[in-house]
Amino acid sequence: MAHNERLRRIIRPQPAQAAAEAERTRRGARVFTEFRHENATGSWSSKRRVVAKAEHLEGKENPRFIVTSLAAENWPARELYEQLYCARGGMENRIKEQFQLFADRVSSETMHANQLRVYLSAMSYILVSGLRRLGLKANELAEAQPSTIWTKLFKIGATVRVSVRRVWVSMASSYPRQKVFQQTWMNLRC
User: Fold this and answer.
1) How many Å apart are CA 94 and CA 102, to the nearest integer?
2) Which residue ranges form the domains of the chain, and what is each CATH number?
3) Which of 121, 148, 170, 175 could form a disulfide with 102 if both were Cys (CB 3.0 to 4.6 A apart)?
C-alpha cells in the first residue's frame, strides 16, 4: 500500500523508535505495528488489517504498509512482513533474473517457439544459479545477478582449439577477471 501523510500520522511513534534504535546500535532498525484502516475512497467494504514497518536506514526513514486479510494470530506483524511478504518479493526477483537471460523476448510467431525459449531460459537460469552456488563461492561474483555473471564471466572473447586429447581455451591476457575465472574453474573441478 502506498504511504501517505494519513498513514504516516497513524504510525508516528514507530519511526521515532526506529531512529532511536538505529542511533543506539549504529545499524538499520525496524519497528513493526499494525492497525485497522478504512481507505479514503471507500472502495473497501470494511476496515482492513494494515501491517506497518517503520524502518530507519542510513539516516533515512523507509516506511512500508501491507494490507492483508491474514489473521494476526497466525501471522504477527514482523513475521508477516519478513517471512511472507519479503519471500514474495524474493520470488519476483528470481523471475526478473530469469527474464534477464532469454525469456524477455517471447515474440515468436508460434506459441511452441515462445514456450521453448522460456524453457531454455529456465534451464540456463538453473545452470547459472548452480554455478553461482558452487563455482563462484567466496569471490566477487558470488552474489551477482545471472545477467552480470553472463556478461562478466561467459561473454568473453577466446580462441578455442580442439585436439584429440584436449580442448584449449585461450583468453586475451588483458581479460580483467582472469583470477575469478580460474578460481571458478578450480571450485568446479574439486
Assistant:
1) 14
2) 5-69 (3.30.1300), 94-189 (no CATH)
3) 121
- Please provide the distance, in angstroms rounded to a whole number, between the alpha carbons at the two ends of the chain: 48
Whether the CB-CB separation of 186 and 136 falls below 8 Å is answered with no
Residue with cell 514456450: 115
Question: Is the pTM higher than 0.85?
Answer: no
CA–CA distance, 150 with 173 (Å, rounded to integer) = 20
Q: Residue written as cell 492483508?
A: 68
Q: Which H or E run includes 159? A: strand 158-162
Residues 46-90: pLDDT tens digits? 889 999 999 998 888 889 999 999 999 999 999 999 998 888 887
Our measurement of the distance from residue 97's CA atom to the centroid of its chain's CA atoms, rounded to an integer in Å, reads: 8
